[in-house]
Specification:
Rossmann fold, alpha/beta, 12 strands, five-stranded parallel β-sheet, Arc Repressor Mutant, subunit A, single chain, 39% helix, 8 helices, binds calcium ion, 2 domains, four-stranded antiparallel β-sheet
């Protein structure tokens, strides 16, 4: 059986060596790139199963590497590793297409657990298209409890049943689903979903939240999924908050 290929894009030798040893030991086929340009040179002829990406690279911004990898490949999970820890940067990282975002210094055991979880998810949700033909990468869904989203296909399922969402409902849910438990102000959601040129007011957000609740909640008048945070905005109840 082929070992999963994990590529590390990281210019700090001490970090990349430690990652290389950790990942090789865990049974992965590891390659290390110190520069974004070296990564893209190799990426042109082979696509790995997972990418660990440092945000601060000497030649190319890690966010641009992330975006470009997303544009070039059908789907590859990307874990972004960074010393930046401002929440706004995290958001940008996710919007650039990172699946998981770890702040340095991170616990190597947590990193390994995240990687294993990603491969398990892919295995579980990937239709086994192994027999013949080209290897087709399977998109990792965003999940929160019974809610799942495959962004490349713009598909959302609740308890395994597809949800029919309008484009704005979808975009709104995507932001909330990327950060379960995080509170978003109405203005922030307005900017992220409708853009800076939008001239309406933040009640637009409320209207779309109401519509989403009609589709997501067992009882839309008693929301348990898409919660109002009084005086602030909205959040998606993280799966483990329900317990
Ligand atoms: Ca770096």
């Amino acid at each position: 059986m082929r070992k999963p290929a994990v590529w590390v894009v990281e210019d700090e030798r001490a970090i990349s060596s430690a990652l290389e040893i950790l990942l090789q030991h865990a049974g992965y086929d590891v390659r290390v790139f110190a520069r974004g340009a070296d990564f893209f040179a190799a990426f042109a002829s082979f696509q790995p199963d997972l990418i660990l990406l440092d945000l601060n690279l000497p030649d190319i911004d890690g966010l641009d590497v992330c975006r470009a990898a997303r544009d070039l490949a059908a789907y590859i999970p990307i874990l972004m590793l960074t010393a930046r820890n401002e929440p706004v940067d995290k958001l940008i990282g996710f919007e650039a297409g990172a699946d998981i975002y770890l702040i340095k210094p991170y616990d190597p055991r947590e990193l390994l657990a995240q990687i294993k979880a990603i491969f398990r998810l892919i295995e579980r949700h990937g239709q086994s298209q192994a027999e013949g033909g080209a290897r087709r990468p399977t998109e990792l869904p965003l999940t929160n409890g019974p809610l799942m989203m495959w962004d490349l296909r713009r598909r959302v399922e609740l308890n395994g049943q597809p949800l029919d969402l309008s484009p704005k409902e979808y975009d709104l849910l995507k932001i909330l689903l990327r950060h379960p438990g995080r509170v978003f102000g109405r203005e922030t959601l307005l900017r992220l979903v409708w853009g800076y040129e939008f001239t309406g007011d933040s009640r637009t957000v409320d209207v779309h939240v109401q519509r989403l609740r009609q589709k997501l909640e067992a009882d839309p008048s008693q929301p348990r999924v898409l919660l109002t945070v009084r005086g602030v905005g909205y959040k998606l109840a993280a799966q483990d908050e329900d317990a």
